[in-house]
Amino acid sequence: xxxxVIIGAGIAGIATAIRxxxxxxxxxxxxxxxxxxxxxxxxxxxxxxxxxxxxxFTMPKYVDELxxxxxxxxxxFFTYQKLNKVCQYFYxxxxxxxxxxDHEKFAAEVQNTTGEPAGVVYKYLDxxxxxxxITNHVFLERSLHQLKNYLKWDTxxxxxxxxxxxxxxxxxxxxxxxxxxxxxxxxxxxxxxYNGSNPYQAPATLNVIPHLExxxxxxxxxxGMHSITTxxxxxxxxxxxxxxxxxxxxQVLVNGGKLMGVTVNGGIVYADIVVSNMDVxxxxxxxxxxxxxxxxxxILAQERSSSALIFYWGISQEFKELxxxxxxxxxxxxxxxxxxxxxxxxxxxxxxxLNISSKYKTDDAPxxxxxxxxxxxxxxxxxxxxxxxITDAREHIIRKLTRILGHDIGSLIVSESILDPRxxxxxxxxxxGSLYGTSSNSQFAAFLRHANRSASxxxxxxxxxxxxxxxxxxxxxxxxxxxxxxxxxxxxxxS
Length: 495
Description:
α1 packs parallel to α10, α1 runs parallel beside α17 and α4 (118-140) packs across α6. β7 (85-90) and β8 form a beta hairpin. The protein has helices at 11-22, 61-69, 103-114, 118-140, 147-150, 153-160, 171-178, 182-189, 209-214, 226-238, 280-287, 297-300, 333-343, 386-405, 421-428, 445-448, 473-490; strands at 3-7, 26-30, 42-45, 48-51, 57-58, 80-82, 85-90, 96-100, 218-221, 242-244, 249-255, 258-264, 267-270, 273-276, 307-315, 325-328, 352-355, 370-378, 413-419, 460-462. The strands form 5 sheets. Strands 8-7-16-17-18-15-19 form a 7-stranded mixed β-sheet. The protein is built from 17 helices and 20 strands. By secondary structure, it is an alpha/beta fold.
């Protein structure tokens, strides 16, 4: 039986382990932390529970697919519910907008709230769907680094329709061409943050993202986001995958361009295949030291995505006007992104994302309380004075929420912990604390991500948010699918 080693038990690493186990591999996963999930883990403090990282669940079919691949019923392991309200939006001018899952209801809400005609919303969503239909099979579900994938008929059809993916305008330019109301432009510009990019630089192709949320829907897993991790680990273990925690891989062993195995806790683990779920930057700079001639220097030097500053707050009050997902917009969006991308600091008026899982999972907070996952987008860590930035940002966030919600939020905080770019890097080996690997601030970003297979080391593969097709739960799961496809072509199923 061939042996595969997975470096890191992030969501992509777990999914890759499941796929390779089904394919007949003996799979061992080595994780540096004492827990699985990478960013998709949880925090418990003072009677409050928080999903520590990703909080939006879309495209659940990619999770279900793993159970089905293993011949199991997903509902026996993992259940979720579709959200009727995707998100509540709060603007500084007093506007409050509910993003309903139902298209007609949402378009009517937009028209009633902003005056923007419902028909314009439908036209925008149709455009988003068109971009998805052109790009999905080409950019998301297949490797961009296999010539034969470009020779498939559906790929060729997409190439002929390339002009329709709007790659030569920025997201902001495209959104301004659709909407007259600045609030709607800001609403759709926000989707750039779903992969850590800047809507004033990123190509309008990324206007595909609303389709993933508003067409396929947003969901809440029973048990919270962390239950995705626990369910998939359970599935992997049932297939014979072995997980080793507190076991950081210190070296990938290469001899003459061929992979030999890895070094873990001072010992050698030999393997036929190694898949790194570690950030590709750290994979090279930490695990392949001495093999600098193999480094893809241009890829590793690319601009990183943005990071996040998260306050996990236990709040001693309930707010009926808030839902699971909430956004409090800044007044000047352009200035906010200039702070992140040009000045490498934090605006005094940041857009705030507030996730409250206790709205759906009541035991995540004590009675009469709420668990606030309070996040703002910030630059990647390049040596800023984060202690000062965090102190100032906390004050500005509390002041803004207090003003909009009409309550002294600072006095309601009874529990607090903080995650910033430095700790994100330390806990998840994400270079500079960037959440999505490289940014998508150019037309060619999709083609410039690192491939899912090494061009120099036979047997070395890559999955996760720092490589193709990108960050976020759905794309990480697709990276696992692409890796498994590469490996399956190399070695036919053994059992």
